[in-house]
């Protein structure tokens, strides 16, 4: 599949899911290879996600981690599911 098969919003969500599911940090090159995207596309997506707080870059600016906004987002989803009684654990 090529980059144009999905809109940027879906590519950003795929990137977030990749980083969130990885126990260690990922580099831009890792993300580009795993998502089959150009590094320039990954850089652009990462810049937007960093600005919004959904991703965090380490001190050396080489590796990506889950950001504070993504953690807050995930916690809110879990809290709301618990309050609605619909939390499912796989």
Structure report:
The chain is mainly alpha-helical. It has a single domain (3-84), classed as Arc Repressor Mutant, subunit A (Orthogonal Bundle). It contains four helices and two strands; from the N terminus they run αααββα. The chain has helices at residues 8-21, 28-35, 39-51, 68-84; strands spanning 55-57, 64-66. It has a two-stranded antiparallel ribbon with strand order 1-2. The radius of gyration is 14 Å and the shape is globular. It starts with 7 loop residues before the first helix and ends in a 6-residue tail after the last helix. The relative contact order is 0.13.
Task: Return the domain count.
Answer: 1
State the end-to-end distance. Answer: 29 Å
> How many strands in all?
2
Task: Enter the CATH topology name.
Answer: Arc Repressor Mutant, subunit A
Portion of residues in beta strands equals 5-15%
Fourth-tier CATH superfamily name: Winged helix-like DNA-binding domain superfamily/Winged helix DNA-binding domain
The side-by-side strand order for the widest beta sheet comes to: 1-2
* Main sheet summary: 2 strands, antiparallel
Q: For this structure, what is the CATH class?
A: Mainly Alpha
**C-alpha-based Rg, rounded:** 14 Å
What string, H for helix and E for strand, traces the elements in order? Answer: HHHEEH
Low-confidence stretches: none
**Global outline:** globular
What is the name of the CATH architecture? Answer: Orthogonal Bundle
Structural class: mainly alpha
């Amino acid at each position: 599949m090529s980059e144009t098969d999905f809109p940027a919003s879906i590519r950003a969500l795929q990137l977030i899911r990749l980083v969130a599911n990885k126990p260690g940090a990922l580099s831009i090159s890792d993300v580009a290879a795993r998502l089959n995207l150009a590094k320039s596309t990954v850089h652009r997506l990462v810049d937007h996600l960093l600005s919004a707080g959904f991703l965090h870059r380490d001190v050396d600016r080489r590796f990506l981690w889950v950001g504070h906004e993504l953690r807050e987002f995930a916690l809110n989803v879990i809290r709301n599911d618990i309050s609605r009684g619909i939390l499912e654990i796989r």
